[in-house]
Design goal:
Blueprint lengths: L2 H13 L5 H39 L7 H50 L1
Helix pairs in contact: 2-3
């Protein structure tokens, strides 16, 4: 078996024009359904982690050092950890809504592709 030939064919396949536009459209629709939930989840998760970290720094007196700031830090930390905890349920709900929105188009296109082959 010639591994160079197999490697060359796999590289050429990547650069060859895609002639089945229905599959490309199906991938785009799938991405369109999932992308808003993914972007929101990453952004909300990063912000929640930063809020929780700020609260931890305040409560452990790394920043500040007074009693009111320590109490404020505990409150901010609880808010940050709560937001981090609800991030996944929000993601699941947003993903479900995105899938519902594009379900009909995706199913119809998938049916056309499967019947066409």
């Amino acid at each position: 078996m010639n591994t160079d030939k197999i490697y060359a064919e796999s590289i050429a396949k990547e650069y060859a024009p895609k002639d089945n536009s229905k599959i490309v459209a199906l991938r785009k629709l799938d991405k369109k359904a999932k992308m808003p939930a993914t972007v929101f989840t990453y952004a909300f998760g990063i912000i929640s982690a930063l809020v929780a970290g700020t609260g931890m720094c305040l409560s452990m007196q790394v920043i500040g050092g007074t009693l009111p700031l320590t109490i404020l830090g505990i409150i901010i930390g609880i808010i940050g950890f709560t937001c981090t905890g609800i991030n996944y349920p929000i993601y699941k709900k947003m993903l479900e809504n995105g899938k519902k929105k594009y379900a009909y188009e995706i199913v119809e296109l998938a049916r056309e592709i499967s019947e066409g082959k």
